[in-house]
Every structure is written in structure tokens, then in C-alpha cells.
Amino acid sequence: MIWYVATLIASVFSTRGTTAQGAHGVREEPQFVTARAGESVVLGCDVSHPLNGQQTPYVVEWFKFGVPIPFFINFRFYPPHVDPEYAGRTSLHGKASLQIEQVRSEDQGWYECRVLMLEQQYDTFHNGSWVHLTVNAPPTFTETPPQYVEAREGGSITLSCTAFGNPKPVVTWLREGEQLTSNKKYMVSDGSLTVQAIAREDRGAYSCRAHSDQGEAVHTTRLLVQGPPYIVAPPENITVNISQNALFTCQAEAYPGNLTYTWFWEEDNVYFKNDLKLRVRILIDGTLIIFRVKPEDAGKYTCSPSNSLGISPSASAYLTVQYPARVLNMPPVIYVPRKLPGIIRCPVDANPPVTSVRWEKDGYPLRVEKYPGWSQMPDGSIRVAEVTEDSLGTYTCVPYNALGTMGQSPPATLVLKDPPYFNVRPGGEYRQEAGRELVIPCAASGDPEIPTITWRKVGKPSRSKHNILPSGSLQFVSLSKEDHGEWECVATNVVTSITASTRLFVIGTSPHAPANVHVSASTTSANVSWEPGYDGGFEQTFSVWKKKTDLGPHDWLSVPVPGSQTWLVVQGLEPKTAYQFSVLAQNKLGTGPFSEVVTVNTVVYPVSTPEPLVLLTPPRCLTANRTQQGVLLTWLPPANHTSPIDRYIIEFRLGERWEVLDDLIPADETEIMARDLIPDSWYEFRALAVMDDLISESSNVVGVSSTGRTITIESV
Ligand SMILES: *[C@@H]1O[C@H](CO)[C@@H](O)[C@H](O)[C@H]1NC(C)=O
Ligand SMILES: *[C@@H]1O[C@H](CO)[C@@H](O)[C@H](O)[C@H]1NC(C)=O
Ligand SMILES: *[C@@H]1O[C@H](CO)[C@@H](O)[C@H](O)[C@H]1NC(C)=O
Ligand SMILES: *[C@@H]1O[C@H](CO)[C@@H](O)[C@H](O)[C@H]1NC(C)=O
Ligand SMILES: *[C@@H]1O[C@H](CO)[C@@H](O)[C@H](O)[C@H]1NC(C)=O
Ligand SMILES: *[C@@H]1O[C@H](CO)[C@@H](O)[C@H](O)[C@H]1NC(C)=O
Ligand SMILES: *[C@@H]1O[C@H](CO)[C@@H](O)[C@H](O)[C@H]1NC(C)=O
């Protein structure tokens, strides 16, 4: 367009030179006027009167390029006729110039001023003078996103800014002062910004900036990310003394921010916990206050803020309640066994732990040290080495910790009881075949009560069926392999328990699993040893099972163990590899269960230290020069050698065989003179280096003819 107008104007002016003699309101050159929006500007236009000097009346017309009718017409003192676009802000300035106030960006463009001379018979119409008005405008936004925009966590959003101005502003997006460029998170193009995969961290201010040399405009939008709350100040562990108030914070941020906080004690809502609900309050900021804490309030408190979006987070902390030591459930009667050690306990509950317990016996402070065989144990209990009638009485205890005590226990009366005793003890051992019945006798008495009798298997409890007969005897209706082992008969009354043990061999079963499997591994072998289990009544043999740890359960391989040996060296392992081993016993009735599986790593091959490299290269560049005195041999030392050179050897030959010319040439010499050579002969020489016990390969061979004046040298 500009180009078109310029061409047009050029043609206007080029024609004028010939035809516009007497033109009015004419300038030779187009004017270029620049103004800032809002300012006032004058578009110049002169009136040149005809040569006769007469002041003829004239009409001024102003055209905007592209609009065929003038927007401003002025004739003499009549009010000008103005297009509504320009009304109120245009006026004639001087003879024909136009003043425009409050210039607008839209006013930019080419203007033409035409002056029509009236009362003139000729040349009443001329193209006038051309003015180009440039209106500079600082950037202003025509479209911006709202001040606040919302987006869901995980979603995306596009913000658009369009700016207007002259020259055309460039629009960029900024976040925290940094200009944004397109990447995984943002797509920036043409004044619009797309934020993708929106996360909580994307919340906050985004600014679009429109910039030109006329200035800049900035618009800021805050992105609010809708999502579940985020706990900014989680609760912290606290310790309070009894009756104080406890306070847990739980500050969360969220959008939307209509948060409700729920607090749990252990797994229960604090408002649903009977003892607690009347003493708790949850403040609007999520803080939980527990008034006048009790020891029972101790435990885990969990807060969970929610705005009904997504999964509500939670955070926990522990409340520790300190309270003076107190006695819980002191029994009114304490039974102690006559003539046996007895313990008088003070059942204490304290936090921090109890530091001391004071006792009273029959209302008087009890001095333990005054009674031989009495002592106070670390937990405050009194131990009596042998309970007699002297020990009888009423006991009370008062426990203390750092916070003091909650007071004395109720009184407990000591009552002597005889311990139970066995009337029938089980025998030392029993052997019975599997599947058969067996009764192991045990009976106990006591005075006055009959003690209760129980049986238990030592070690792994037996899942097989067994009964305790009314007499106290242990009955197996049908013995099973599992019953094999050590059993204890326990007789219990209020004061104590006594036990009697016996061994039961269940014969006629497959062997029991070997125990204590031990493996010591080397690089490629491992010595597996074990303790045999019970053989089930028949001779047992073993096999060792192995596999690489990373292989599956089908890859176990077995190696038989010769004779009754209880160890085996497993060969053919790979170094630095994890292996698993288990041992299986077998007798004529079958195999027992596998032993425990032991995992070991074979060791790494010992790293062999390489032999130090011995290197000796031959002497180099041997040359021979015949001189007056003889043949001068020179050479260079070997290029590479690991130790210093000891000496050099020079050898010569006349025919086939090499002979030593000199074998004691010091290492710091690299030439010798070969004298007294046989005339008219073809000599060849070579050099060797000696280092430690090593003789190098030979150097190059040089040949010298001792014939005539001309010396012939050849390298062979
Ligand atoms: C005046 O300008 C118009 C275009 O606006 C052009 O067509 C015409 O030839 C011009 N006349 C003279 C006399 O220059
Ligand atoms: C809070 O107390 C619990 C339980 O006593 C403990 O496991 C946790 O490490 C404590 N936390 C802090 C931050 O001390
Ligand atoms: C609790 O009581 C003890 C002993 O009186 C005192 O040393 C401690 O400061 C108290 N703790 C608090 C949190 O008040
Ligand atoms: C929070 O406000 C949203 C939208 O107004 C509503 O759907 C939600 O139920 C409110 N959540 C809570 C916990 O009041
Ligand atoms: C394997 O270990 C057993 C038990 O430690 C030991 O008695 C036995 O001699 C060892 N065998 C070899 C070959 O080292
Ligand atoms: C050998 O003799 C030639 C000529 O006489 C001389 O240029 C050269 O340097 C000599 N070389 C040595 C190693 O002396
Ligand atoms: C000497 O040693 C260097 C570096 O190890 C090697 O590049 C060169 O070839 C050796 N020279 C000879 C003559 O062996």
C-alpha cells in the first residue's frame, strides 16, 4: 500500500513540473509528519496566489487517501464542514494547513490538501500537496486474559494477549521475571501462552508484556490451580505434661480454599472418641487443641485437610504425655511360694520411666536392706530370696518419676502358698513307633489347690493331635513324626510353675531335617557341613542340593554324600557368584524335609600381579666411518629400556661367524674405533646392548670395505 501511494505521488510530482504552472496549495515534496497519539499536529499546506497578486477567495479541502470525498472543507469564515470522525478536533491552521488535536492511531496515513481558487477562470482543480502522518502509539492491550484464571490439576490452559500500538508491539510472556519459551511445559506463540500438564507448582502470576520503542504495557494474570490441598505446616511431635493443653498445627493450602480439616487419634475421628471429643477443638486454620491432656490421649494424631477435590493428603505426629508415676491395678492379695524365691510387685505406669519405688509394710516404711535375702529390683519390685512367715503383712508402694507421683497404691496382703510338686514325673525318654499310641505320665499336687497341668513341646510347637488326660498325663492316640522331640510337663498354681521334661523318639519315620548347615566357600568350591537330624530309627544318608541364587526352584541339583559323612566339598562352582545350598537326609522310609537354605557367595579369583615388564630394544642407527686411524663406529642408545643400560657389545664378522670386537663398552659411550683391521676385507659390524642379565637383539648391520681409498659403507 505504502509502495503504491509512493508510486502514485511520484507520478503526481513528475507530471506537475510540466502542467502545474500556476497550481495552488502546492508543495514540491510530500511532507512526513510524526506525532504521538493524543498530541496535536499540523499538516502543512500553502496557498500560492496567482501571479497578479490578487487575493482571490479559495476553498481548502483535505482528503484522506482512499476516501474520495474530503473530510474537511473550509471556505472563508464559514464554519468548516468536518467529517464526524474528525469533528471537534480539526481546525484550519493558517491559510490551508490543518491542525488535528488528540491525534489517534487511526489518523495515520496519507493526506492530501487541495486548494481551489474561486473567481478564476482557469485551472480550478489541482491535485494538492501530500502529507504523510505517522501516529506513534505506545503499546496498549486490546485483549487480555482475566485477572484470575482457574485450571484443574493435570489440565491445560491458554492465555491470550493482543496488543496494539505503532510501531506494532512484540508480545512476550513472563513468569517470575523470566521470559517463557516453548518447551515441555509451555507453548508460546503469537501472544498466547499455553500451560500444559498443570501442577500445583504452576500456580501464580503470569505476565504478558507488549513492548515497542514507544514503551511497554504489562498485564498480569494469576493462575489458580484447582486440586486437593497441600499441607504446608504439618504437625510435629510434641510432649506435654498431664493437664496441659496440647496443640498440633496442620496448615494447608488449596484452591478452592474451602478447606475442612479432619483429625484422627490413631484410626478414630477425634470427635467420635468418647473421652476426647469434649476436650478437643479444631480451629479454622486446621490447628487441633487438646485441652487438659490425659495419659490416655498419647498416641498418633493425623490431620487430613479436604476441599472435596482429588485425594486429601494427611500428616501425622505423635503426642507424648508425661505424668507422675502411678500404680495401676495393685492386686489386693499377693501370693508367694513358701520356701522359694518370691517377688512383690508394684504395677507402675509412668512416663518418663519410674526412678524409684518406696514401700511400706504394715504402715511402716520398708527398709529392704534390713532383711537378709531381700532386695529391690530395678523396676522397684521386692525380691525375697526365701519366703517365710516373717514376710507376711500388708504392703503398699509409692512410685516416683521425674514428675513425682500420683500417690500410694492400695494395700496388698501377702499370702504364703506351697508350690506344686510332681507325684508322678515323666520318664527320661520314650521310644515308640509312628502311628502307635503313647501315654507319658505326669501328675502333680499342691496344697490346698490341685495345680493345673499343661504340656508343651520345646522348640517348634507340635501341630499334631495330643490330649492331656485328667490325671495330667500326655496322650498321643497315633504318634506322628512331628511329635518327635523334647516335651515339658508344667504344673502351675497361684504362686509358681514347675516343669519336668522328657524326650520322645518317634521311630519308623523318614529322617528329620539336618540342622546348623554351614557353608564355607572359596573361588570354585564350597565345603557344606551340617548336624544330622534324628534318623527316624534307620540309617540315614545325605545329599547336598545346590543352585545359583538367581536361578529358579527347578534348577536345584543334588550331590550325594558318601557314607555317613556330615560334610561335602561341592566342586565346579563359578567364582564371585551367589549359590544356595540345602541338605536332605534319606533313610529306607524316605526323605526328610530339606534343611534351611544357606546362601553364600564364592570368592573372586585372586588377582595375579603381573610380572614387571622387562623391555630392552637394540641400539639404533649404527654407522661406520673409515678414518686414518681405523673404522669409527657410532650408534644411538636403545629407544626403550626398563633399567639402565650396563654396557654395549660390538661384534664383527669377516665371513659367517660373528665375533666379539669389544664387549665392555661403558653405557655412556656410543662410539668406538676399530683398529688393526685386515686390509682388503669386507667387514660387517653390529652393536648389542646389555641390561641386567639381558642382551638385546642386534642393531642394524653395517658393512665396511677396507679396500682402497674409497670407503664403502652398506647397511645390511
Ligand atoms: C490527480 O490525482 C489523481 C489520483 O488521485 C490522478 O488520477 C490525476 O491524474 C491527478 N491529476 C493531476 C492533474 O495531476
Ligand atoms: C515422631 O515420633 C514418632 C514415634 O515416636 C517417631 O517414629 C518419629 O520419628 C518422630 N518424628 C520426628 C520428626 O521426630
Ligand atoms: C513438665 O514437668 C517437668 C517437671 O516438672 C518440667 O521440668 C517440664 O518443663 C514440664 N514440661 C512442660 C512442657 O511444661
Ligand atoms: C468446596 O467448594 C466446591 C466448589 O464450590 C464444592 O464442590 C466442594 O464440595 C466444597 N468442599 C467442601 C469441603 O466444602
Ligand atoms: C569341611 O568342613 C568340615 C566341618 O567344618 C571339616 O570337618 C572338613 O574337614 C572340611 N573338609 C574339607 C575338605 O575342608
Ligand atoms: C662420517 O664421515 C662423513 C664424511 O667424512 C661425515 O660427514 C660424517 O659426519 C661422519 N660420520 C660420523 C658418525 O662421524
Ligand atoms: C618405545 O615405547 C614407546 C611408548 O611405549 C613406543 O611408542 C615406541 O614404539 C617404543 N619404541 C620401540 C623402539 O620399541
TrEMBL record:
Source superkingdom: Eukaryota
Domain Fibronectin type-III: 513-605, 618-710
InterPro entries in the record: FN3_dom (IPR003961), FN3_sf (IPR036116), Ig-like_dom (IPR007110), Ig-like_dom_sf (IPR036179), Ig-like_fold (IPR013783), Ig_I-set (IPR013098), Ig_sub (IPR003599), Ig_sub2 (IPR003598)
Gene Ontology cellular component terms for the protein in this record: neuron projection; plasma membrane; synapse
Location relative to the cell: Cell membrane; Synapse
Family membership: Belongs to the immunoglobulin superfamily. Turtle family.
Protein name according to UniProt: Immunoglobulin superfamily, member 9Bb
Species annotation: Pygocentrus nattereri
Lineage: Eukaryota, Metazoa, Chordata, Craniata, Vertebrata
Name of encoding gene: IGSF9B
